[in-house]
Specification:
Layout: H1 2-20, E1 25-26, E2 47-49, E3 52-56, E4 59-63, E5 66-68, E6 77-78, E7 81-85, E8 88-92, E9 95-96
Antiparallel strand pairs: 1-8, 2-5, 3-4, 6-9, 7-8
Amino acid sequence: MKRFLAMGVFALSLATGGANAAEVFVRFGPPPPPREVVVVRPGRHHVWVPGFYSWNRGGYVWTNGYWAVPPRGRAAWVPGRWAPRRGGYVWVGGYWR
């Protein structure tokens, strides 16, 4: 029974991960980003991850930036962006480099 339950949870996690990997395509680009207020750095190892526009229910929604600790030393955050594609824009998510 435990094995069956574990297989079900694993299958559900795979299905959820695949749904998140779908490409977001929008016919028009986002508005200019608002001016962000960067608060005091909480620690010397923290890196600022800037805010970004995401697409939700037919419109762009702003997500504020935040301080984060890199997953490894000297890692740099590469911000996400809306890349122009034929007939619209595609979201390319940010990542640690």
